[in-house]
Each structure stands twice: as structure tokens, then as C-alpha cells.
Design goal:
Blueprint lengths: L14 H23 L6 H29 L13 H31 L20 H36 L3 H5 L20
The protein binds protoporphyrin IX containing FE (2 copies).
The site of one protoporphyrin IX containing FE (HEM) has 25 residues, from helix 1, helix 2, helix 3 and helix 4.
Length: about 200
């Protein structure tokens, strides 16, 4: 595990972790925008381009998430705020693990749907990825239903996660959001010198 166990000075996530976090948010926002724009495309060509971009950004976020998980093994994280109840720490940890799980499974579902539908992923119009499974239309239909349902679940969890971050920032004022914000965006009014010494 990577939680800091004994460095009360460490208040922030390291720059790489912060960069990958906000890059993920950007990619996921683009992915959802593209997904929901497909139905409003003015021509078939535009719809196809939007689907290709949706798939390409989806594959990208999967790779970025793998990178994030590898980096996580070497990074050192700040401690929880000292006054954060144990139940809240567990809730934060499990919701964040669930986000990682969705970041890894959702692109695979999309990829398998695409292959089963008989299409191929044209990665940013640069070339096609090899198919993982063969064409199977009934399976493709089921995979798309799951992909759409997981998409909604994902949106719900992101909303919960972002609300929790804002609750920490505006209500508890415990420095949780500042720890993840880029350097220039910090306005650390309440320095949490008292972050717990216990591992997260
Ligand atoms: C985190 C990554 C992803 C998220 C959050 C996501 C989300 C979504 C959502 C919400 C929809 C439904 C759109 C609607 O209801 O109109 C959708 C559709 C779709 N997704 Fe993804 N997706 C991701 C990755 C991928 C990947 C990697 C692929 C393929 C390689 C893919 C392929 C598709 C396809 C083919 C559709 C159906 C588009 C259509 O014909 O309307 N997705 N996705
Ligand atoms: C696509 C949207 C988002 C995803 C997928 C996401 C994912 C994650 C994940 C996986 C972590 C855990 C980091 C780790 O332990 O390795 C995390 C932490 C964090 N995120 Fe997000 N995040 C998203 C959006 C946001 C937004 C919009 C905010 C702020 C409003 C935010 C604020 C934070 C904060 C403050 C932490 C650190 C929490 C802690 O101390 O444990 N995130 N995020």
C-alpha cells in the first residue's frame, strides 16, 4: 500500500499523480461528450467520426489508468486529515477503487462490443487495432446495453466523488481538494498541519 505512514510534512499528492488525475477527468469528460453527441450528428460521416473519436479516447483513458496504477506503486500519498472519521476514510477509499475499476472495465466493454459488432477501433484515424473477439451480433447488443448501463453508473460515481471533494473543501476545509489541485490553483487557507500519522 502506498499511504504515507510517518511523514506529517506531506500535504499534497505528487505532481505526476495530480497531472494524471486531471488528465483523466479531461479524457472522461471528452468521452462522455462524444458519446452523447453521436445521436445529434448531422450526417452519417460525422456520426462515424464521433464514434471513432469516442473509441480512441476510451482506449487512451484505459492506457492512462494503467499508467496511473503503475505510478501509484511508487508514489507517496499525503495522510488523511487527522479529524477524518474512519468510516469516511473507508468510503473515500472504496469509491476511488470503484472509479479505477470502472476506468478499466468500461473501455474493455466498449472494445468487445465494437469487435462483436464486426467493427474495428481506428485509433485517432491512424490505424486499426486488432480484434479481440470475432463478430457476434447478439453478444454485441448485450455488451452495448451493459456499456451504456455502466456509463450511467460511472456518471453517478463521478458526481458523488466530485461532491465529496467539494464537501471537504467548502464544509470541512481540511485541505483534501488542495492536495489534488495543480500548484497554481491552490488557495490553502486551512493548512492541515495536523494530518494523521496513521497510514491511509
Ligand atoms: C471510460 C471509457 C468509456 C466511457 C465512459 C464510455 C461511455 C459510453 C456511453 C455513456 C455510451 C452511450 C451513449 C448513448 O447512450 O448514446 C457509449 C456508447 C458507445 N461506446 Fe463507449 N465509453 C467508453 C469507452 C469506449 C471504448 C474504449 C469503446 C470502443 C473501443 C467504446 C465504444 C462505444 C460504442 C461503439 C458505443 C455506441 C455508440 C453508438 O452507436 O451510439 N466506448 N459509451
Ligand atoms: C472523471 C472524473 C474523475 C475521476 C475518474 C476521478 C478519479 C479519482 C481517483 C481514482 C482518485 C484516487 C487517487 C488514488 O488514490 O490513486 C481520485 C482522488 C481525488 N479526486 Fe478525483 N476523479 C474525478 C474527478 C474529480 C473531480 C471533479 C474532483 C474535484 C471536484 C476530484 C477530486 C479529487 C480529490 C480531492 C482526490 C483526493 C482524495 C483523497 O484524498 O483520497 N476528482 N480521483
Amino acid at each position: 500500500m502506498l499511504r504515507t505512514d510517518g511523514d506529517p510534512e506531506l500535504l499534497d499528492f505528487d505532481p505526476v499523480t495530480r497531472f494524471l488525475h486531471w488528465l483523466t477527468l479531461f479524457l472522461v469528460a471528452v468521452i462522455f461528450l462524444l458519446a452523447f453527441s453521436i445521436d445529434f450528428a448531422s450526417s452519417k460521416e460525422e456520426a462515424v467520426a464521433l464514434i471513432h473519436l469516442h473509441r480512441s479516447f476510451g482506449v487512451t483513458v484505459w492506457v492512462v489508468t494503467l499508467g496511473r496504477l503503475v505510478w501509484r506503486q511508487f508514489a507517496r500519498f499525503p495522510n488523511w486529515p487527522a479529524d477524518m472519521p474512519q468510516a469516511m476514510r473507508h468510503a473515500a477509499q472504496w469509491s476511488e477503487y470503484s472509479l479505477y475499476a470502472l476506468l478499466l472495465t468500461q473501455p474493455i466493454l466498449g472494445l468487445l462490443h465494437t469487435d462483436a459488432h464486426g467493427d474495428r477501433v481506428n485509433l485517432f484515424f491512424l490505424g486499426h487495432l486488432p480484434a479481440l473477439i470475432g463478430r457476434h451480433r447478439p453478444l454485441a447488443k448485450q455488451l452495448l446495453e451493459v456499456h451504456e448501463a455502466v456509463g450511467l453508473l460511472f456518471l453517478g460515481l463521478i458526481a458523488l466523488h466530485a461532491s465529496a471533494a467539494l464537501y471537504h473543501h467548502f464544509w470541512r476545509r481540511d485541505g483534501t481538494l488542495e492536495a489534488m489541485l495543480p500548484q497554481g490553483m491552490r488557495r490553502r487557507v486551512t493548512l492541515c498541519e495536523s494530518r494523521s500519522l496513521r497510514p491511509r
